[in-house]
């Protein structure tokens, strides 16, 4: 399974099909249809949120899935597959990859990421683990813990990186991630044009994830509305 995912996605586009509870397309049926559209467009894999969405998508398209589960806990700032419970839930679907927050911030219930990783390796040895990181320190921690993939997912989405964009300074941050990571890097986060997607692959990323600029129509439409309203 691991080799299949890596071979299938190398140098290719992964499309994120996600809609949160307060978004107009929130529905496992709709996300499965979105995944079908992505498949027909040539996507190599899908990134999806929640057990029900992952299962619906896997029932609809013959593509590997990067699964995650966004859950808010009152005692922790992270929300991407934050505890062992969510990690197990996504892995149990048969998703090729389970992604989780690796930003050095506290996890719910005092859980430790090192323990979570060790448990997942024992219980789901065929499942790849992807670290959603925001800094070079996070990449170093991912190396230490033995994650299979490193994503730049959280760069620009943590208090320390808010306002940052992966394309800033000619992709300077991404180049440093590529030099530091011991495993394939998946570029993700604010990649909002075909040109950016092509650029990160040219720099050496294993693959690229694009989400909002393809699968969140309310955000896509707003770009047009805002442009028209400019005087």
CATH level-two architecture: Alpha-Beta Barrel
Coarse structural class: alpha/beta
Overall average residue pLDDT = 96
Strand order, largest beta sheet = 1-2-3-4-5-6-7-8
How large is the count of helical segments?
Answer: 10
Largest sheet: 8 strands, parallel, barrel
Q: Approximately what portion of the residues adopt beta-strand conformation?
A: 15-25%
Tell me the name of the CATH homologous superfamily.
Answer: Aldolase class I
Q: In the residues, how many domains can be counted? A: 1
Helix content: 40-55%
CATH topology: TIM Barrel
Description:
By secondary structure, the chain is of the alpha/beta class. It has a single domain, classed as Aldolase class I (TIM Barrel). It is 44% helix and 16% strand. The protein contains 10 helices and 8 strands. The chain has an 8-stranded parallel β-barrel with strand order 1-2-3-4-5-6-7-8, surrounded by 7 helices.
Give the SSE layout.
Blueprint: H1 2-9, E1 12-17, H2 28-41, E2 45-49, H3 51-60, E3 65-68, H4 84-91, E4 97-101, H5 113-123, E5 128-132, H6 136-145, E6 149-151, H7 168-180, E7 185-188, H8 194-203, E8 207-210, H9 212-215, H10 217-229
Parallel strand pairs: 1-2, 1-8, 2-3, 3-4, 4-5, 5-6, 6-7, 7-8
Helix pairs in contact: 2-3
């Amino acid at each position: 399974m691991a080799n299949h995912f890596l071979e299938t996605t190398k140098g290719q586009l992964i499309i994120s099909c996600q809609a949160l509870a307060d978004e107009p397309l929130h529905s496992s049926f709709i996300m499965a249809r979105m995944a079908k559209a992505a498949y027909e467009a040539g996507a190599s894999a899908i990134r999806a949120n929640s057990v029900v969405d992952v299962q619906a998508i896997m029932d609809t398209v013959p593509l590997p899935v990067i699964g995650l589960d966004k859950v808010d806990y009152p005692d922790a700032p992270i929300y991407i597959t934050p505890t062992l419970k969510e990690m197990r839930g996504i892995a149990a679907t048969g998703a090729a990859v389970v992604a989780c927050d690796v930003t050095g911030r506290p996890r719910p219930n005092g859980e430790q990421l090192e323990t979570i990783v060790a448990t997942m390796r024992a219980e789901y040895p065929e499942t790849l683990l992807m670290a959603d990181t925001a800094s070079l320190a996070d990449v170093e921690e991912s190396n230490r813990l033995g994650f299979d993939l490193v994503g730049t997912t959280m760069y620009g989405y943590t208090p320390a990186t808010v306002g940052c964009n992966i394309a800033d300074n000619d992709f300077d941050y991404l180049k440093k991630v590529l030099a530091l990571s011991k495993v394939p890097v998946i570029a993700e986060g604010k990649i909002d044009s075909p040109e950016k997607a092509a650029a990160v692959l040219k720099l050496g990323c294993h693959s690229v994830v694009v989400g909002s600029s393809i699968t969140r129509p309310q955000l896509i439409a707003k770009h047009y509305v805002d442009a028209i309203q400019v005087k």
